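Team,

Forwarding the record for the chain on the shared tracking sheet. I've put the sequence and predicted structure together so nobody has to dig through attachments.
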Amino acid sequence: MLNRVYADYLMPSRLGEYEALVRKVAAAGYTQLSVRDFFRQVRRSGCAPGGPLGRSFVHRHDIDSDLRTARKMFEIETRHGVRASYYFRLSTLDFGFMREIEAAGSEASYHYEEVADFAKRHRLRSADAVRARFPEIREQFARNVARIVDGLGLPLTTVASHGDFANRRLKVINHELLRDDALRRRCGIECESYDAELLRCFDIYISDRKYPVYYYPLSPFDALGEYRHICLLTHPVQWETNWVESTRCNVRRLVEEVAWRA
């Protein structure tokens, strides 16, 4: 609990560390790019050792919350010519910011969570009950994608599944929804960020963590030079404290858990 309080409210900004990282990645000879660009390169040339795809460092940002810090990370990347993917939940959509990201050559897309949302809204408490409603949930996903495409004015190429406490309790991940090829074709989705075709091309996949761990399974600084293709997943709220956003998210989760159990 003390670690959580420190991470959410007391931790000094780590954005200087993030800027140092993008500098070191460049100095180590890696191309820093988005999930979309990496996937399309893989589709064109493959990712076998010794192949034409050079050293790659893929930046994936899941905007669960904290648009303020997301903007700061984007500003750092823009200064250094870094391209990245930003995945927005319905609750964090900002079409103006998303268009800025796309104009800079990076990717702005959808961090979807229809399975968890549907389960909580309808108080479904078993995996079988949720999967039985997948046709309805797929329709909701398609409507949400259409809404985002309309607001952004650009197609969505890749999307990323959000992980919610409801998914963990039910043992049903949001990604299951996109095992439907017809749904992908309908929505124009070329790749889901957890697709095996994509993941097998990363030599290591690193995710940020809350204080005191910071990274798992190792620091991206230590991965440089040791691995050829690296993916780093980050969440802005874990790089700079934002009292308002942290409090909002903590209260929202508490309310959702209580309502779901009721």
